Amino acid sequence: MQRAQETERDSEVLIVGGGIIGLATAWRSAQRGLSVTVLDPDPGRGANRVAAGMLAPVTELQYGEESLLRLGIASNERYAAFAAELEAATGLSTGYRACGTLAVALDADDRAELREQHAFQQRLGLAAEWLTGRECRRLEPMLAPSVRGGLLVAGDHQVDGRRLGAALLEACVRAGVRIHRSAAARIVLNPAGDRAAGALAEDGTAFTAGQTVLAAGSWSGAIPGLPPEAQLPVRPVKGQILRLRMTRPDGAPLPGGPFLSRNLRAVVRGVHLYLVPRENGELVVGATMEEQGYDTVVTAGGVYELLRDAHELVPGITELPLLETGAGLRPGTPDNAPLLGPTALPGLVAATGHHRNGVLLTPVTADAVAAYLATGQLPPEAAPFTPARFSSTHFPSVPALQEATR
């Protein structure tokens, strides 16, 4: 039950949402000298808790997403320095690993699709090397004999989303960011109703701020208090994942060498699958794509499908211990691209809607939104992703989107 309203707390920037996007934006904003408050009941433990952490702008490329590709490449190019700075500031590891990604095909149809993707990548000047099935198995001996070919993308890497969240939270604390552990009950407007003025927390605390950043992930379109024209078209997209162990219980490697040495992607019966081997011996397998609203129940069917498809790709996977199953919510938008920068409501700034690229786009989002908060100018790489690209004449309203996912 909501308590009586407490004393107002002021800051220059209030960030609603403490996932990795919100925390990274808070950290970068504090580095620019802004006073920042983050409002979240469990900061650092959003969708990143179940994310595989692939930094894969090239192998994630889809037709019609060239602008998103450029944003992803810009973020990926910053990641090594971003991770190093974060680790130096906190003493905590982010699990960043420059390992590359191998995308493979299991049958003739998958091979044709992968060939087409390679041609598209070449037209865009991207670095991707075509390999035969034998060459793929030479790189990753655990692959199934049925692998027909693959693409090696040396520049697609990985980071550990859980470690990243913990490091960002510590960096914010050390930078003087105020963390308030409660959810936002609603966005608050000024007396005239024409500007965002902060938020009211579920515990009754009222926060006022010159600028309010909506970074609440899949909940960004559901927080009350906004006028219709400022509501963001964000919906939850469910993803189930598995975590297995590739090492002995004592951490020693299994006989025969490493199980996998780099990120692995495939299309199995038309379904996209990835396997991400961590340096700590963990293997992440994912992920389903389900329009199930805010449901985060792990289902037997989801686990079965992931294991079945992963077994076709790497038969030995069924011998590995299963450590964990999980489900999270990606914040999807109508065009699968993020919402960055000013909204239709003055004082309200968006940093949400990253869908399947939230971990990848963390550095570039934090830099862009912090720059806007400090200067009023959005960097050129973020300009195509403002909420202004959506209008009610082209896309359904937020309530309609939410109803469609129930």
Automatic annotation (TrEMBL):
What does the UniProt keyword field contain? Oxidoreductase, Thiamine biosynthesis
Q: In which pathway does it act?
A: Cofactor biosynthesis; thiamine diphosphate biosynthesis
Q: Which InterPro entries match?
A: FAD-dep_OxRdtase, FAD/NAD-bd_sf, Gly_oxidase_ThiO
Q: Which top class of enzyme applies to this chain?
A: oxidoreductase
* Ranges for domain FAD dependent oxidoreductase: 13-371
Q: Can you state which reaction this protein catalyses? A: glycine + O2 + H2O = glyoxylate + H2O2 + NH4(+)
Which molecular-function annotations from GO does this UniProt entry contain?
glycine oxidase activity
The signal sequence is none
Quote the EC number: 1.4.3.19
Pfam families in alphabetical order? DAO
The protein's superkingdom reads Bacteria
Name of the protein this chain belongs to: glycine oxidase
Q: Which organism is it from?
A: Streptacidiphilus alkalitolerans
